[in-house]
Structures are given as structure tokens and as C-alpha cells.
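User: C-alpha cells for this one?
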Amino acid sequence: MVKAKPKKSSVSAIRVAELAGVSRSAVSRTFTDGASVSPATRTKVLAAAEKLGYHVNHLARGLIHHRSGIVCLIVAEMQAPFQANVVETTTRKLQAIGKVVMVLNTAGQPENVEAALRQTLNYRAEATVVVSGAPPLSLIETCIENGQRVILINRDDAITGPEFVLVENENAAREACLLLHRAGCRNLAVVSSTAGTSSIMAREQSFVAAAAELGLTAQVSRAGPTGYATGAEGARQLLGASNRPDGVFCVTDLLALGFMDVARQEFRLAIPDDLCVVGFDDIPEAGWLAYNLTTFRQPIGAIADHIASIIEKDEPEPAPPKRLPTQVAWRKSVRP
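Assistant:
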């Protein structure tokens, strides 16, 4: 019978102090930024720590000061290019300011978002950034009452307590309509999804409203969840009808890629000669030569910077939602 190996205990600061011949407080000061410690003492402590393999327990230290240093990101559809870009940029920024980032994948189910938010309370997270999904208001309030900061991305709910970071969806959608109108498109459509998120709905509704201001009617397609397949099905529905559109705004780039592939492969339409298409997000694939999609770039770097600035503040004051502008990424899917 194989005996289980005894579990090794972690090296304590007391053992480091004994080996270095200094006090326990001297060890603590050595590993505390800005603390006063003599060069000779620092050298002895670091040498002892290196020999013993000592590492500071930042979690325990943070909990003593009621700051765990943990920031949770709640994300759905992590395989989607835009979501992946948000996670990559935000985690890199938060790690640069010394935070430990936990990514909780909710797989898009509302009950999963609620479970993930409860999990952040269990881990005493310092802050939670909700990238995807809509947690219940009561649970958000519970998190705030427990001293946790909640930051909602691209959500414009009429609730107090959380911090909001949004992009100017409405302005971008109106500009998309004007770009298509300038290109000579008069039969417009918007390819949306059944997701029903505030950002998706803002783009869809603003585009339809902008078309109405120009005296035009925009068809709306919502063939399924926000993804490539839904864009492809939207193309079949819109382009297969008798009143085929000549200008289309897709509320995400992933929808646009599916739409463009079906338009060219199944309906033999030339883009932008026969059909103009505008997207939203500016995912890396939008710039591929196969698509050259004109789209609106979300300021992911600025979003991550603002999230970090909120978390770094000891006592952030209530602030209005932070609204960031998008930028047109002009390519070749719209006639100039």
C-alpha cells in the first residue's frame, strides 16, 4: 500500500525572521511597499526568504485590511471575439495595478449570472465587473451592502449603487444609418438578435429611428442569439424576400460576418456594389481581407482604464454613467 505523502506546510514569516535574526515586524516591513526598513535588514530578510521559499500571503494580508485584492469578471459567450478582447484587455490592466482577477463564465443563462455574483461574495471580492448578463437588482444591492463595488458594462439600468461604463450606442447607430444613406441606400435593414440587452436594443432602435427621420422604413431581423449563425439566417430572411435591402446595419460584427458570407455565397451579391453592410465592435476578424467590414470600434482600452480607475479609489463618490464614444473603422463594405 502506497502511503500518502505528508502535505507540506507553507513557510511562515516567523521562520524567516528566525533565520534572518530579525523581528517578525521587520519581515512584514520588508515586504510592505513604502515601509521603513534598513538596507542591511532588507538584505538579510530577502536572503532568508529566498532560502526558505517564502511568499507573502497577500490574500490574508488583504482580508485584515478588508481588501482582498480580488476582482471578478462575469462573462458569457467567452468564445466570442469581442468578449475575449474585453477579458484580455481588462485582466491585463487589473493585474498591472496589483489585482487578482477571477473570471466566472456564466454561459449566458440568467440563473448562472446570479450564481456567479453570489460566488463573488463568498470569495470576498473587492469588486465585480459584469461584462455580460443582467443580475437581479436585489443581488446587486446585497453586493454593495457587503462593501463590494459592482461595475456594469454597456448596461443603462435605472438603478443606483453600481458604476456604469457605456459606449455611445445611439450615436453610432445613427451614424451608421447616415453612412448607408450617403452611399445611396434607400431600402434599409438592421440585423439584430433575440438577446434583448440594453446595448443591442439601443443600437437597433436608434437605427430604426434615424431611418424614419430620413423618411425611410428599416426592416428588423432577429433570427436568434447574437452570433454568426444568426447573421447568416438573417441574410436568408432579408435577402430572400421581395423587398431585398440594399443597406444593412448589423448590431455586432459577428452578425455582420455571417450576413456577408451568405449574401456573397448564397445570393451572389457583390459587397459593396450590390449591398452595403455596416457592423459594430471592430473585432479583429472585421479587418480580414475576406470581410473588410466598415464598423464602429468600441474603446475597449478606455473601458478597461476606467474600470481600473474606479477600483483604485479607496472611497469612490457616486458618479453618473461614464459614456465613451465609438470611432468609425472605415473599410470597404460601404460605398464611399
